[in-house]
Amino acid sequence: MIVRQLTCRAALNAHLFAQVRFPTGHRDMARPSSDLAAFRKMFSKANNIAIITGAGVSAESGVPTFRGAGGYWRKWQAQDLATPEAFSRNPSRVWEFYHYRREVMLTKNPNPAHLSIAECEERLSKQGRNVTVITQNIDELHRRAGSKNILEIHGSLFRTRCISCGHEESNYNSPICAALEGKGAPDPNTHDAQIPVQQLPRCELKGCHGLLRPAVVWFGETLDADILTNAEKVLDSCDLCLVVGTSSVVYPAAMFAPQVAARGVPVAEFNMEDTPATMRFKFHFHGPCGTTLPAALAPHESEQQ
Ligand SMILES: [Zn+2]
């Protein structure tokens, strides 16, 4: 039940992490990468591997996040548009933003990090071993790489939910509706398309015709309880945990990985930079995960073919 407890404690954890102090002299010095052979030995014995992934994995495929320095769509960042309030105020603008993000994904592809995770899952499943991806990414690149056991805790760009009847389904239409065709340009001088709400994506269930929204978790919204319960089970039962491309100060890695580490289970962090939690983890591998992960997850000499 660790995740449930932590839902309330996430803010506290973030506070605690902010208090972590490295010994003098360590602050400017990245933690050196761990011994890969030592990690590989643990990897070869693990039967239930949880892989938590975040924006860094998508960034290596060139997927924009619209957060942080320079991360703008028109005049806004994700936190301005990815909210229920923004959607009820201006559903046309929010749909333009998501339409753009969906269309951008047609030009992006899984990178070696996604592919090595998917390959590892398939290979280990033949040995009776499990790999589960818990991702905060909404771009479906893990799915496209071939991963099967995926918990998309923040939803997907390619799912819709009806705000009237609640029906949720996959949607890969391009454009998602006629009125959005050619809309969504990110340039700051672009004017809102101001699409009438009746012409935005609508529910196709008989007699409903409600307005659809992207089935993603927006700022201020709670996670899907079923997905959270499943993530909880995976984290409670894993005997090895990887944290890939996500800072361990922000949700969800701040909740998940340090608790797995506290259970005495080895955690390996793969990231471009150190995080305040880096020193809590047994392993840390520095660099682009498209480079570090394929080496880490390649077949081990002890694996039965
Ligand atoms: Zn509906």
Itemize the secondary structure elements and their pairings.
Elements: H1 2-18, H2 36-45, E1 48-53, H3 55-59, H4 78-81, H5 84-89, H6 91-105, H7 112-125, E2 130-135, H8 141-145, E3 150-152, E4 155-162, E5 168-170, E6 212-216, H9 225-237, E7 240-244, H10 253-262, E8 267-271, E9 283-286, H11 289-297
Helix pairs in contact: 1-10, 7-11
Bound molecules: zinc ion.
Ligand catalogue: zinc ion
Q: Helicity range of the residues? A: 25-40%
Strand order of the largest sheet: 3-2-1-7-8-9
What is the H/E order?
A: HHEHHHHHEHEEEEHEHEEH
Describe this structure in words.
- Zn(2+) binds at residues 162, 165, 203, 208.
- Belongs to the sirtuin family. Class III subfamily.
- It holds the Pfam family SIR2.
- The protein has 305 residues and is of the alpha/beta class.
- The protein has two domains: 27-61 and 110-154 and 223-300, 3-Layer(aba) Sandwich (Rossmann fold), CATH 3.40.50; 64-107 and 155-216, 2-Layer Sandwich (SIR2/SIRT2 'Small Domain'), CATH 3.30.1600.10.
- Helix content is 35%, strand content 15%.
- It is built from eleven helices and nine strands.
- It has helices at 2-18, 36-45, 55-59, 78-81, 84-89, 91-105, 112-125, 141-145, 225-237, 253-262, 289-297; strands spanning 48-53, 130-135, 150-152, 155-162, 168-170, 212-216, 240-244, 267-271, 283-286.
- A six-stranded parallel sheet has the order 3-2-1-7-8-9, sandwiched between helices.
- Strand 7, helix 10 and strand 8 (267-271) form a beta-alpha-beta unit.
- Helix 1 (2-18) crosses helix 10 and helix 7 packs parallel to helix 11 (289-297).
- The protein starts with a helix and ends in an 8-residue tail after the last helix.
- Residues 1-28 have low confidence and may be disordered.
- It binds zinc ion (ZN).
- The site of zinc ion has 8 residues, from loops.
